[in-house]
Amino acid sequence: MLDVYVWFYTGCILVIVGSIATVIGPGVKDPVVRIINTEIPAVGISMIFLTYNHTIALVTFIAATAIVTLILLRAVVRLEEMGAEL
Amino acid sequence: MILVPDVVSPIVVGLYAPAIIVGILVGLIGLFGISVEKNDLHVLILTDIVGIGMLIFVAAVGTDLAESLILPGLVVELAEILAISEILMSREMRKSGKTVELLPTPLHYNLEILQTAPVFLAIILIAYGAFLSGFTGGAIAGAGILFYVMSIKVRGVPSGVWEGLAGVSGMAWCLWLVGFLVLFVFPQYWLLGLMLAAFGVFIKVVFKVGIIGVMNREEFKKE
């Protein structure tokens, strides 16, 4: 068995690095890049949920993340079609 | 004085402080990004990061309580992002005077398997979901209904079906509540209460997911 702490601290590092990448990472002026960068903290928090055995929360979180990504990408596409500055 | 019940395992107690520190850090990073950013859409995306900080806070409790608090948090976050993105888009529409389609990319899924497989797969999924019962079973059986409704080509669901689905869903909700009441008022019938709650939630989730399927078909197969 792998140590529980490995999963937890890997998750913590991924969450912190991913959120920094989303805020000031390279190319975040483009909203699509920023949306894709939010997936890194999502993976990190999935690992934290795994550490605590939050199965249902993990499953729901994955589904909710997928739907949020769809909603945000739809907003980006529609705003770009209208010619808004992003 | 910090009161920790004995049922909480020592690992969870040991991980509490680092988890809270990480949560605060992530929340501060997200809020810093929001304060620097000017564009509304970017601010909406950064709200996600603050939400993740919130989830770490709740998850650090580490018991079933945390799990039951994460679920509504996720649903509220989802609804909030959906609503704010709609507001942003309608404001932009009003500003520029242009209108665009509701769905930017029309979905055409003409796969042969969608006409031959759905009945069989839906039956398997619903049977397995009924066997599991509860929230997970509801999700699985709902996926079966979703797949069936989206793939079989029957145009124009009569409005009675809608109201029927909503009504059954509401009755299942009552079943769930009655199950909980039984658990508290007549603890000796706990098995009855458990079963009522499990199958109430099962039916509820199945029909919620099924309604998504009906809505999708009405939206996508219009042309």
Structure description:
The complex is a heterodimer of chains A (86) and B (223). Chain A has 86 residues and is an all-alpha fold. Chain A has one domain. Chain A is 79% helix and 0% strand. In chain A, α1 runs antiparallel to α3 (39-51), α2 runs antiparallel to α4 and α3 runs antiparallel to α4. Chain A is elongated and about 50 Å long. Chain B folds into two domains: 10-96, Helix Hairpins (Orthogonal Bundle), CATH 1.10.287; 113-220, no CATH class. Chain B has 223 residues and is mostly helical. The interface between A and B is large, with 47 and 52 residues.
Oligomer status: heterodimer
Secondary-structure element order of chain A, N to C: HHHH
Q: Could you list the spans of chain B in which at least 5 consecutive residues all have pLDDT below 50?
A: none
| Secondary-structure class of chain A | mainly alpha
> How is the biggest beta sheet of chain B arranged?
none
Number of structural units classed as domains of chain B: 2
Radius of gyration of chain B: 22 Å
So what's the overall shape of chain A?
elongated
* DSSP helix fraction of chain A: over 70%
Helix content of chain B: over 70%
**Count of beta strands of chain A:** 0
* H/I helix tally of chain A: 4
Tell me the total number of β-strands of chain B.
0
Major β-sheet of chain A, in short? none
Counting helices, strands and paired strands, the structural category of chain B is mainly alpha
Order of helices and strands of chain B: HHHHHHHH
Mean pLDDT of chain B: 79
Largest interface: A-B, 47 and 52 residues
What is the count of distinct domains of chain A?
A: 1
Mean pLDDT of chain A: 88
